[in-house]
Amino acid sequence: MKKLGRKWTEKLEFGAFTIPVLLCIITIFYIPFAMTIRYSLMKWNGISKNPTFIGLDNFKQIFSGDTNFTNAALFTIKYAILYIVIVNVLAILLALVLDMKLRSTTWLRTAFFIPYILSLVIVGFIWKFIFMQGFESLGDSTGWAIFDLSWLGEPGLAFVSILAVSIWQSIGFYLVIYIAGLQSVPEDLKEAATVDGAGPIRKFFSITLPLLAPSITISVFMALTNSIKVFDVILSLTGGGPGGTTYSIAYDIYRDTFQNNLYGYGTAKALILFVAVLIITVIQLAFFKSKEVEA
Amino acid sequence: MRSKHTPKRLILEIVMVIVSLLFLYPLFLTIINSFKSFSEVMTDVIALPKSFTLENYTYVWKYINYPRLFTNNLIITVVGLAGIILVASIGSYKLARTKSRMSNFIYMLCIIPILIPFQSIMLTVLQVAKQLHLSNSTWGLGILYWGFGAPLALFIYHGFVKGIPREIDESATIDGASGFRLFFSVIFPLLKPVTATIVIIDVMWIWNDFLLPLLMVNGSPSTKTLTLAAYTFVGQYTSDWQYAMTAMVMAVLPSIIVFIFLQKYIVKGVVSGAVKG
Question: Where does the ABC transmembrane type-1 domain lie (chain A) (predicted)?
Answer without folding.
Answer: 73-284
